[in-house]
Specification:
alpha/beta, 7-stranded parallel beta sheet, 8 helices, 9 strands, globular
């Protein structure tokens, strides 16, 4: 399959090392048709944007990029954080409505919505590294929170599912398939994604392959994701940012 877009990249507005324009130039050099800037939500400790309104500034920069680089479509997105067990995320709906792409993920260090969130979203995940019991509890909590988020928000994809923090991938894949939310094959992090692919295939879910680039040099570096999907004979029609090779733009 051939990838025409990378919908998960970070800029200096969060923890990326390149500017938006540097990411755009890198995507153009890769021959991509689309690029999304998806900086971390504001409750991500150290890595997050300063405030939800930062996405409006990013959107303004992206408008300029679309004028300057007509050969590519640049989209404004976000990688929101789960901040409570009920699926609450750290971006308000009025900002979400201004985004082109919304991804949501579980991250280890966030400012939670409440004391309950401090325990169920942060504390249990930290203790999961030391105890099987807490790992099992973290899997239940993380899966529930992501399923709740998928049911509440129009989420395009779940970012790097099961990366370091346990998730029941079969249960999540089923929820995502029913809500038309894709599961990300993240090429920026090296971990076992085979169970995720098998679960999504079984549940009828779709995929998106993204770089999670924090440096311009890795924008559009998606080959390992393509190889994984081809290993399990995933058809390109099930991959939102892929098309049949030499077949022009995806319909």
């Amino acid at each position: 399959m051939e990838f025409f877009a990378d919908w998960h990249t970070h800029s200096t507005y969060s923890d990326g090392r390149g500017t938006i324009e540097q990411n755009v130039a890198a995507a153009v050099a890769r021959g991509l048709d689309e690029l999304a800037i998806t900086d971390h939500g504001p409750r991500n400790i150290i890595a997050g944007v300063k405030s939800p309104q930062t996405y409006l500034k990013i959107n303004s920069v992206i408008d300029n990029m679309n004028g300057k680089y007509p050969e590519i479509t640049v989209k404004c997105g976000a990688e929101a954080d789960i901040v409570a067990l009920d699926g609450t995320i750290d971006i308000p709906r009025q900002i979400i409505d201004r985004l082109d792409i919304l991804s949501v993920g579980i991250h280890p260090w966030i400012w939670p919505e409440s004391l309950e969130g401090a325990w169920s979203v942060v504390g249990v995940n930290q203790l999961a590294h030391f105890s099987r019991g807490f790992r099992d509890k973290a899997m239940v909590n993380n899966t529930k929170a992501l399923k709740e988020a998928v049911s509440k928000f129009d989420i395009d994809f779940i970012s790097h599912p099961d990366l370091g923090l346990p998730v029941d991938v079969a249960e999540l894949a089923s929820a995502c398939a029913s809500c038309d939310t894709s599961l990300e094959i993240n090429t920026g992090h090296h971990y076992d994604k085979e169970d995720l692919v098998k679960a999504a295939l079984k549940q009828g879910g779709n995929f998106v392959v993204n770089s999670d680039a924090h440096f311009p040099e890795t924008v559009g570096d998606l080959a390992s994701g393509g190889a994984l999907l081809e290993k399990f004979k995933v058809p390109w029609e099930r991959v939102l940012n892929a098309r049949e090779p030499n077949n022009g733009r995806r319909n």
